[in-house]
Amino acid sequence: MIYFDSAATTFQKPLTVQNAVLRAMRTCASVGRGGHAAAMAAAETVYQCRLMAAELFDAEPEQVVFTMNATHALNTAIFSVLSPGARVVISGFEHNAVTRPLHALRAQIGVAGKKLFDAEDTLRDFARAIERKPDAVICTHVSNVFGYVLPVERIAALCREKNIPFILDASQSAGTLPLSLRQTGARFIAMPGHKGLYGPQGTGVLLCADGGKPLLFGGTGSNSEDQAMPDFLPDRLEAGTHNVCGLAGLTEGMRFVRKQTPSSILRHEQALLAQVKQEFRGQENLRLFAGEGQAGVLSFCVDNVDCEEAAQALAQEGVAVRAGLHCAPLAHTSAGTADTGTVRVSFSAFNTPYEVRRFAQLCKKLFPM
Questions:
Q1: Architecture of the structural domain at 15-260
Q2: Are 328 and 341 in contact (CB under 8 A)?
Q3: Fold of 2-10+262-366
Q4: Which residue stretches of the chain have pLDDT < 50?
Q5: Sign, CA torsion 248/250/251/252
Q6: How far apart are CA 340 and CA 324, in angstroms?
């Protein structure tokens, strides 16, 4: 199988990730639930993951909170910062993991930056919106549909100037683009473990500049006599049993990223992206959504072919892509593809130029001009 769906999940994992999951399953119990060897092994496993994430994202270990996924992390961040009816500014490329919690809060939502691959327009739009002093700003780092890299460092700087809480969705950037909790001044940065960090599904990270309100309440292995959640991180936001096996795998995934370096992984993905563009040059029945400042994600449409049918045809030839609205209808509205959706191709460190050539050959066979 040619797997081009890493924006959903990096299917190919380093062998070290697989081995770590199995090792933890054989040796670890639960964190903070005893002083015996299996409990202590679990505590050490989780702490090593916390240290690795803190090092990779320029945070203190206690600022690293583990979640089930990026959606869990974003919900925790949003409900920590915003009250019902609050005013919030988001980009025109946000995922439902941002927009649905905001709608649940009945927030007053302002959308800034709707032009694809136009960082200056996005920045101007955010600057105008931030002048109106919203209660928070939430922005994705990279569009999960189009690979558009938004100017989040500059947006974060505008928020710092106005003392407005900033929440960053790093779901498509963690592991490929620079991320620093300290330098951005973000209140929260949310990310999954199963995408660019090459960890197992069911893992996520929330980087917390301070506090936060618990989304879940329960046991933490600390302050058990108190019926309120602990007032310190990470325990305050980590109720219940940790996914110890998953976090063992995530540690090795982040170790793989650190060894390869995010910048080299990004260059590899962008080289494959450039190859796709070259392969489809002159293919007039394919519309590619490509531009400056693009990570390893590319959407396209085929004239007179439903995107779901196009993806299914590729699947039958052994190519895994994703079609539809990609849980991000707002992004499609901004790009003018809400009625049709797109076919999305997304890369990882394990993809090769041969796979791109084969994919292009199949597209030309399946969707002739």
A1: 3-Layer(aba) Sandwich (3.40)
A2: no
A3: Aspartate Aminotransferase, domain 1 (3.90.1150)
A4: none
A5: positive
A6: 8
